[in-house]
Each structure stands twice: as structure tokens, then as C-alpha cells.
Amino acid sequence: KNEVEQSPQNLTAQEGEFITINCSYSVGISALHWLQQHPGGGIVSLFMLSSGKKKHGRLIATINIQEKHSSLHITASHPRDSAVYICAVLTQGGSEKLVFGKGTKLTVNP
Amino acid sequence: NAGVTQTPKFRILKIGQSMTLQCTQDMNHNYMYWYRQDPGMGLKLIYYSVGAGITDKGEVPNGYNVSRSTTEDFPLRLELAAPSQTSVYFCASSYQAGELFFGEGSRLTVL
Fold it and tell me: Could you read off the pLDDT of A72-108 as tens digits, one per residue?
């Protein structure tokens, strides 16, 4: 079983819909990252969370440390939001390392 | 702002050849990482470094070597390239374990 599981793997939405992508993990973590990978391949950081909730524009990320679960929400989705969204956790312990989920491919149709 | 710079962007190698992927960051980040991304798969950690002179193996280190002689540079060396090393390689950096900054990726094909 992967240490980081994302769902769904693929998601198709109509413009304007509210989107939720989920991330569950099975290890102790120091922090959780949400990343966006554009169709051209570039990867950008969206959020880094260790507790609670963060908001940036139409994007909201939440984390529940006790339940080992995080969600990424996109409000009023737009075709330019089409991308792969990746969850990554920074593991606790002597040697911190990042473990990635496989990503969720989001397609937003006009 | 340069950020994280990877070179080359594309490379074709023959089986058994060697090469070095270069990664440089100008943000004075102490943490640097090398990942590979295979089609339909998540990013897998090859090697990482928490500071100059310190490197550690990730999930998939076999067939690769790294060095970190300066804060800025973290080259990834492929010795005796194999078809299984065909992938897209990403270098990333962060200050401590903070926000990640990625290079644009290097697409390597081994024939």
C-alpha cells in the first residue's frame, strides 16, 4: 500500500463546478504539500500545510492530522485549472523526506 | 529570478553511456532533491541533500550518484545508462522543509 493515496485519479468537471481532491496518508508527517503540474510538465507549489486550513484565491487546502487526511478544493473551476494535482507529505523522523501521491488529473470543460 | 535551473532539458543516451544532469538554485536553499517521474506514476525520490556535503538515498537510488559540494549545485550522475532510466527528472529545492521550488524537468531517453 502506498504511503500517500489520492482520490480520484481522474476528475472531469464543467466550468464553474466546485472541485474536491482528497489525499490520505499512513505515516507521521511534519507537513503536507499540494502541487500543480501543468500539461507542459512544470510543477508549482500551491500550499504547504501542517495544520488547519489555507486559502489562496479560489483554492482552499485543509488538513486533519488526527485522521491523516487532506483535501484540496477549487471553487468556481475554470478550464485553466486543468492540470495534475499532487499531494506530497514530508515524513517525520531522523531523515525527513517527501513522499508523493500519484496525482489527480483534473479536466475542466468550458 | 532564476530559481531552480536544470540542464539539459532533453537528452538521448545509448545504453552504457554516462551523463550528468545539472541542477543549480540561487535561493540559498539548504534542501535539494532529485526525483524521477515515469508515465502514470508519482514522483519518486532518487537522492536528496539537506546541506552542502550531506547526501542521502531516496526510494530509487540504484544506478545514480550525487554530490553536494556547494549550496547551489546538486548534480545527478547516471553511470552505465539503462533503458529503465528513461524518465523525466526533476530537481527541487526548499529552505529547510518549506515551500518547494522545482526545475522545469529533464527528459531522458535511453536507447
Answer: 999 999 999 999 999 999 888 756 678 899 999 999 9
Residues comprising chain A, all counted: 110
Distance of alpha carbon B1 from alpha carbon A71, whole angstroms: 31
CB-CB neighbors (< 8 A) of A10 in chain B = none
The one-letter amino acid code at B40 reads G
Confidence of residue A41 (pLDDT cuts 50, 70, 90): confident
Residue A84 and residue A86: Cα distance in Å, rounded? 6
Q: Which of A45, A86, A90 sits opposite B97 (nearest CB)?
A: A90
Chain A residues whose CB is inside 8 A of the B41 CB are: 102
Per the CB < 8 Å rule, is A97 touching B43?
no
- B37: cell is 517521474
